[in-house]
Specification:
Largest sheet: 7 strands, parallel
Radius of gyration: 21 Å
Strand order of the largest sheet: 3-2-1-4-5-6-7
CATH superfamily of the largest domain: Glycogen Phosphorylase B
Strand content: 15-25%
Oligomer: single chain
Order of helices and strands: EHEEHEHEHHEHEEHEHEHEHEHEHHH
Number of helices: 14
Distance between the termini: 23 Å
Bound molecules: ligand GMT
Length: 368
């Protein structure tokens, strides 16, 4: 098959999943990745072509973000015709699914479109009155529609008037890359990785760590960056924790930090999937998450991690202490986590599901 994948290039899970999927699919198919910048996990050399969406700089457009969706449509048309694409797979509905739909129409239905919903493109951005009608239309009129968790599927069907089903194809992680590294040291390493947005509830991690660090020799590592970082750094300083907390910013080889950690926190208010948690689990790192959304589908409470109520800092601290002060429990949870990743979230299994979906979409008359 000749496949075009459109995604965001930034440090979000949807861009990571799209890029990793492009790597996997390009072993068997002709693959074209389309975005406005090189995605973070793309690397310097790839087995497929990266097409950069060029944005016209024009004074009238300074405050009009829609110019990206239009430029993406034109780039998609270009790639569809010059490479005779069969499938355009849009990751993140806003605006990628809309651009894919319009490109298909401009190209006289020469391709089939597949849209993968990642979370906030459905229940936050996509549901906002500014985008809802167009997101709904684009979901309904994509030839195939997938969601990364059962939670996201159900929520999307509830929130949008669409009369079609959504197939759940979960995210995946490379177990060769994300694996356990040496943890032979006195100090326990606790870790969190995100885009530092309020939905991640990073202050809960700090408050929990304030309790944990009084009981055990531990260090907290933050990977990533985003709007909440200045506030979080101030909190750490105000609580006198600066010597025990490191802000690493964006890390290219994230597995080298996560792999040597003893525990991973993801206490989000909402999370459609939680790719960062899955990467930790692949590294045999137990996860403490919240009982919300897709996290409940990934983490099994008391088996490979713990699930706390949103904002229950005391429970988060208690669960963390149970893990870091009991090395046999830590090892058992870590082994269980990796087993689950190998069984349910292995790259080849998920690649095969997308291939099957592409084939079904190509050879049946779609749009329900
Ligand atoms: O809105 C975000 O958090 C960014 C978005 C993205 O583009 O990565 O994250 C969503 O997609 C990820 C990949 O499928 C999921 O792992 C995240 O759970 C999801 N974020 C939320 O639902 C908050």
């Amino acid at each position: 098959m000749r496949i075009g994948i459109a995604c965001f290039p930034t440090y979000g899970g949807s861009g990571i999943v799209a890029t990793e999927l492009a790597h996997l699919l390009s072993k068997k198919h002709e693959l074209h990745l389309i975005s406005y910048d090189r995605p973070v996990r793309l690397g310097e050399e790839t087995e497929f072509t990266f097409h950069k969406v060029e944005l016209l700089s024009y004074p009238l457009f300074d405050r009009v973000p829609c110019c990206y969706s239009l430029a993406l449509i034109s780039k998609l048309c270009d790639v569809i015709t010059s490479h005779n694409l069969d499938i355009v797979h849009a990751h993140y509905a806003v605006p990628n699914a809309t651009s894919a739909y319009l490109a298909k129409k401009i190209c006289n239905d020469a391709v089939k479109t597949v849209t993968t919903l990642h979370g906030t493109d459905s229940y936050l951005v996509g549901s906002h009155p500014s985008y809802k009608a167009v997101t709904q239309f684009s979901m309904q009129n994509s030839d195939a529609l997938t969601a990364v968790s059962e939670y996201l599927r159900t929520r999307t069907l509830q929130d949008f008037s669409i009369t079609r089903d959504i197939e759940v194809i979960p995210n995946f992680v490379d177990p060769q890359r994300f694996r356990r590294l040496d943890r032979n040291r006195e100090e326990k390493i606790l870790c969190h990785s995100s885009n530092f947005r309020p939905i991640k509830r990073i202050p809960d991690i700090i408050h929990a760590f304030n309790i944990i660090s009084k009981e055990t020799n531990s260090r907290l590592l933050f990977i990533g960056d985003g709007p909440e970082r200045p506030k979080v750094e101030k909190m750490v300083a105000d609580l006198g924790l600066s010597a025990r907390v490191d802000f690493l910013g964006y890390v290219q080889d994230v597995e080298e930090v996560v792999g040597m950690s003893d525990l991973f926190f993801l206490p989000s208010e909402d999370e459609s999937f939680g790719l960062a948690a899955l990467e930790a689990m692949s590294c045999e790192v137990p996860v403490i998450a919240t009982k919300v959304g897709g996290l409940k589908e990934i983490v099994s409470h008391g088996i490979d991690g713990y699930l706390a109520e949103v904002g229950d800092v005391k429970a988060i601290a208690q669960f963390a202490l149970e893990i870091v002060t009991d090395s046999s429990r830590q090892r058992e949870f870590g082994r269980n986590a990796r087993q689950k990743v190998l069984k349910k979230y292995a790259p080849d299994k998920i690649r095969a599901r997308y291939e099957k979906l592409y084939e079904k979409t190509l050879y049946t008359s779609t749009v329900q």
